[in-house]
């Protein structure tokens, strides 16, 4: 187990504190990366995002802080802190920060 992973294991932590905003960019931190899936925390500066793409698996997104526009198959969704959305497998999706936002992404590869 890497030293960074050991620092997370067996502790109660606030997810908001696991990544910090950086001006003009997207920051990510992978918490778990296994063959069966990943758990990653992201911080997006206002206006930053991920361009449209598809994934072969459903992806669960929970907004931890701020506001995002998540577009799935051409339909925009305004998602705010405390809300979640599931991006279905094989449907094009994109994310953009309406304000700075942090999110938890869980992808199960099964």
TrEMBL record:
SUPFAM superfamilies on file: RmlC-like cupins
Domain Cupin type-2: 42-106
Cross-referenced Pfam families: Cupin_2
Highest taxon of source: Bacteria
Gene3D superfamilies tied to this protein: Jelly Rolls
Protein name: Cupin superfamily barrel domain protein
Organism: Geotalea daltonii (strain DSM 22248 / JCM 15807 / FRC-32) (Geobacter daltonii)
Lineage: Bacteria, Pseudomonadati, Thermodesulfobacteriota, Desulfuromonadia, Geobacterales
